Amino acid sequence: MKRLGKKRRKPAKKTLLLLVSIFILLALVFLRLSESKGVSNFDDCVAAGYKVFEEEDPQRCVSPDGRVFVAKIDFKPVASAATAGAPDVKNIDFVVVVQSSGPSSTKLSTAVRSQAEWQDVWGRLYAGIDPLPPLLPIDFTKEMLVAVADGARPTSGFSTKINNITQTSSQLIVGATAFGPGKNCKTTALPQREANYYNVVRLPFSKLPVSFDIKSELRDC
Stretch 10-33: mean pLDDT, rounded? Predict the structure, then answer.
Protein backbone atom coordinates (compact mmCIF):
# COMPACT_ATOMS: atom_id res chain seq x y z
CA MET A 1 0.00 0.00 0.00
CA LYS A 2 2.86 2.41 0.72
CA ARG A 3 4.32 1.89 -2.75
CA LEU A 4 0.96 2.62 -4.36
CA GLY A 5 0.71 5.85 -2.37
CA LYS A 6 4.11 7.04 -3.63
CA LYS A 7 3.21 6.29 -7.23
CA ARG A 8 0.00 8.33 -6.94
CA ARG A 9 1.87 11.43 -5.76
CA LYS A 10 4.17 11.65 -8.81
CA PRO A 11 1.47 12.60 -11.36
CA ALA A 12 0.17 15.27 -8.96
CA LYS A 13 3.63 16.90 -8.83
CA LYS A 14 3.93 16.84 -12.62
CA THR A 15 0.48 18.40 -13.00
CA LEU A 16 1.39 21.14 -10.51
CA LEU A 17 4.63 21.92 -12.34
CA LEU A 18 2.77 22.04 -15.66
CA LEU A 19 0.16 24.44 -14.27
CA VAL A 20 2.86 26.68 -12.79
CA SER A 21 4.70 26.73 -16.15
CA ILE A 22 1.51 27.63 -18.02
CA PHE A 23 0.74 30.38 -15.52
CA ILE A 24 4.23 31.88 -15.91
CA LEU A 25 3.98 31.71 -19.70
CA LEU A 26 0.58 33.43 -19.72
CA ALA A 27 1.86 36.09 -17.34
CA LEU A 28 4.81 36.82 -19.64
CA VAL A 29 2.55 37.01 -22.70
CA PHE A 30 0.15 39.35 -20.86
CA LEU A 31 3.07 41.54 -19.78
CA ARG A 32 4.39 41.80 -23.32
CA LEU A 33 0.95 42.65 -24.70
CA SER A 34 0.42 45.27 -22.01
CA GLU A 35 3.77 46.87 -22.80
CA SER A 36 2.93 47.02 -26.51
CA LYS A 37 -0.24 49.08 -25.92
CA GLY A 38 1.89 52.22 -25.59
CA VAL A 39 3.53 51.63 -28.97
CA SER A 40 2.02 53.75 -31.74
CA ASN A 41 4.79 54.16 -34.35
CA PHE A 42 7.98 52.60 -35.73
CA ASP A 43 10.34 54.42 -33.36
CA ASP A 44 8.33 53.32 -30.31
CA CYS A 45 8.37 49.73 -31.57
CA VAL A 46 12.17 49.73 -32.06
CA ALA A 47 12.75 51.39 -28.66
CA ALA A 48 10.64 48.67 -27.01
CA GLY A 49 13.01 46.04 -28.44
CA TYR A 50 10.51 44.31 -30.73
CA LYS A 51 11.50 42.45 -33.91
CA VAL A 52 12.71 44.68 -36.76
CA PHE A 53 12.98 43.47 -40.37
CA GLU A 54 16.09 45.47 -41.25
CA GLU A 55 16.56 43.83 -44.66
CA GLU A 56 13.32 45.30 -45.97
CA ASP A 57 12.78 48.70 -47.51
CA PRO A 58 11.06 50.33 -45.79
CA GLN A 59 11.94 48.55 -42.55
CA ARG A 60 9.14 47.04 -40.46
CA CYS A 61 8.82 46.46 -36.73
CA VAL A 62 6.27 43.99 -35.32
CA SER A 63 4.79 44.28 -31.82
CA PRO A 64 3.68 41.22 -29.79
CA ASP A 65 0.00 41.99 -30.47
CA GLY A 66 0.53 41.66 -34.23
CA ARG A 67 0.69 45.32 -35.23
CA VAL A 68 3.22 46.22 -37.92
CA PHE A 69 4.91 49.63 -37.96
CA VAL A 70 6.72 50.91 -41.04
CA ALA A 71 9.76 53.18 -40.90
CA LYS A 72 9.34 56.75 -42.04
CA ILE A 73 10.17 57.38 -45.67
CA ASP A 74 11.82 60.61 -46.76
CA PHE A 75 9.94 62.13 -49.65
CA LYS A 76 9.22 65.50 -51.20
CA PRO A 77 5.71 66.87 -50.84
CA VAL A 78 3.59 65.98 -53.84
CA ALA A 79 1.60 68.82 -55.32
CA SER A 80 -2.07 68.09 -55.75
CA ALA A 81 -3.25 68.27 -59.35
CA ALA A 82 -6.53 69.67 -58.08
CA THR A 83 -4.82 72.77 -56.62
CA ALA A 84 -2.05 73.37 -59.15
CA GLY A 85 -2.14 77.05 -60.11
CA ALA A 86 -5.38 77.66 -58.22
CA PRO A 87 -5.81 81.08 -56.53
CA ASP A 88 -6.48 81.53 -52.81
CA VAL A 89 -4.97 78.18 -51.88
CA LYS A 90 -3.05 77.69 -48.65
CA ASN A 91 -1.23 74.74 -47.15
CA ILE A 92 -2.57 73.31 -43.89
CA ASP A 93 -0.13 72.04 -41.26
CA PHE A 94 -0.84 68.59 -39.88
CA VAL A 95 0.63 66.10 -37.40
CA VAL A 96 0.91 62.34 -37.96
CA VAL A 97 -1.19 60.42 -35.44
CA VAL A 98 -0.80 56.89 -36.81
CA GLN A 99 1.57 55.54 -39.50
CA SER A 100 1.28 51.79 -39.36
CA SER A 101 -0.25 48.60 -40.76
CA GLY A 102 -2.39 45.78 -39.47
CA PRO A 103 -4.56 42.82 -40.47
CA SER A 104 -7.61 44.90 -41.40
CA SER A 105 -8.77 44.76 -45.04
CA THR A 106 -10.53 48.14 -44.81
CA LYS A 107 -9.85 50.58 -47.63
CA LEU A 108 -10.88 54.12 -46.79
CA SER A 109 -10.22 57.82 -47.23
CA THR A 110 -12.23 59.91 -44.81
CA ALA A 111 -12.41 62.92 -42.54
CA VAL A 112 -13.16 62.39 -38.84
CA ARG A 113 -14.83 65.18 -36.86
CA SER A 114 -16.30 63.48 -33.79
CA GLN A 115 -15.46 60.94 -31.10
CA ALA A 116 -18.04 58.51 -32.49
CA GLU A 117 -16.55 58.71 -35.98
CA TRP A 118 -13.05 58.27 -34.55
CA GLN A 119 -14.14 55.20 -32.59
CA ASP A 120 -15.63 53.71 -35.78
CA VAL A 121 -12.54 54.38 -37.93
CA TRP A 122 -10.20 53.12 -35.18
CA GLY A 123 -12.15 49.87 -34.97
CA ARG A 124 -12.07 49.43 -38.75
CA LEU A 125 -8.32 50.09 -38.99
CA TYR A 126 -7.51 47.65 -36.18
CA ALA A 127 -10.12 45.02 -37.05
CA GLY A 128 -8.68 41.58 -36.32
CA ILE A 129 -6.67 42.74 -33.30
CA ASP A 130 -8.08 41.73 -29.92
CA PRO A 131 -8.04 43.67 -27.70
CA LEU A 132 -8.06 46.89 -29.69
CA PRO A 133 -5.23 49.32 -28.87
CA PRO A 134 -6.39 52.23 -26.68
CA LEU A 135 -8.10 54.96 -28.68
CA LEU A 136 -5.78 57.96 -29.06
CA PRO A 137 -7.32 61.10 -27.49
CA ILE A 138 -8.30 63.94 -29.85
CA ASP A 139 -9.91 67.27 -28.93
CA PHE A 140 -12.60 67.52 -31.61
CA THR A 141 -13.57 71.01 -30.49
CA LYS A 142 -10.26 72.23 -31.92
CA GLU A 143 -8.98 69.48 -34.23
CA MET A 144 -10.11 66.90 -36.76
CA LEU A 145 -8.52 63.87 -38.39
CA VAL A 146 -7.96 62.62 -41.90
CA ALA A 147 -7.41 58.90 -42.49
CA VAL A 148 -6.24 57.00 -45.57
CA ALA A 149 -5.98 53.19 -45.73
CA ASP A 150 -4.87 51.32 -48.85
CA GLY A 151 -6.65 48.00 -48.22
CA ALA A 152 -5.18 44.52 -47.80
CA ARG A 153 -1.79 43.81 -49.41
CA PRO A 154 -0.21 40.32 -49.70
CA THR A 155 3.42 41.31 -49.10
CA SER A 156 5.61 43.83 -47.31
CA GLY A 157 7.03 46.84 -49.14
CA PHE A 158 3.84 48.90 -49.27
CA SER A 159 3.07 52.11 -47.41
CA THR A 160 0.55 54.95 -47.46
CA LYS A 161 1.53 58.60 -46.96
CA ILE A 162 -0.51 61.76 -46.64
CA ASN A 163 1.76 64.27 -48.37
CA ASN A 164 -0.09 67.55 -48.04
CA ILE A 165 -3.40 69.15 -47.19
CA THR A 166 -4.46 72.32 -48.97
CA GLN A 167 -7.42 74.60 -48.42
CA THR A 168 -9.39 76.49 -51.03
CA SER A 169 -12.35 78.76 -50.48
CA SER A 170 -14.70 75.78 -50.81
CA GLN A 171 -12.89 72.62 -49.63
CA LEU A 172 -9.90 70.84 -48.12
CA ILE A 173 -7.93 68.68 -50.52
CA VAL A 174 -5.80 65.82 -49.17
CA GLY A 175 -2.87 64.77 -51.37
CA ALA A 176 -1.66 61.24 -50.63
CA THR A 177 0.42 58.49 -52.18
CA ALA A 178 -0.03 54.72 -51.97
CA PHE A 179 3.49 53.35 -52.42
CA GLY A 180 4.23 49.87 -53.71
CA PRO A 181 7.50 47.93 -53.98
CA GLY A 182 9.44 48.22 -57.24
CA LYS A 183 10.83 45.20 -59.10
CA ASN A 184 14.20 45.41 -57.32
CA CYS A 185 12.74 45.57 -53.80
CA LYS A 186 13.01 42.69 -51.39
CA THR A 187 9.58 41.84 -50.02
CA THR A 188 8.29 39.26 -47.61
CA ALA A 189 5.14 37.27 -48.27
CA LEU A 190 2.56 37.39 -45.51
CA PRO A 191 1.20 33.82 -45.46
CA GLN A 192 -0.81 34.11 -42.24
CA ARG A 193 -2.71 37.26 -43.16
CA GLU A 194 -2.54 40.23 -45.48
CA ALA A 195 -1.53 43.66 -44.20
CA ASN A 196 -3.26 47.00 -44.59
CA TYR A 197 -1.09 50.12 -44.64
CA TYR A 198 -2.65 53.32 -43.32
CA ASN A 199 -1.92 56.89 -42.30
CA VAL A 200 -3.94 59.11 -39.95
CA VAL A 201 -3.11 62.79 -39.36
CA ARG A 202 -4.62 65.56 -37.25
CA LEU A 203 -5.19 69.14 -38.33
CA PRO A 204 -7.11 72.22 -37.19
CA PHE A 205 -10.88 71.68 -37.22
CA SER A 206 -12.72 72.76 -40.36
CA LYS A 207 -16.29 72.35 -41.55
CA LEU A 208 -15.23 72.49 -45.19
CA PRO A 209 -15.89 69.40 -47.35
CA VAL A 210 -12.84 67.14 -47.80
CA SER A 211 -11.77 65.56 -51.09
CA PHE A 212 -8.86 63.19 -51.72
CA ASP A 213 -6.25 63.15 -54.47
CA ILE A 214 -4.53 59.76 -54.02
CA LYS A 215 -1.81 58.61 -56.39
CA SER A 216 -0.23 55.17 -56.75
CA GLU A 217 3.54 54.95 -57.10
CA LEU A 218 6.11 52.15 -57.27
CA ARG A 219 9.24 52.91 -55.27
CA ASP A 220 12.52 51.38 -56.42
CA CYS A 221 14.87 50.11 -53.74
Answer: 65
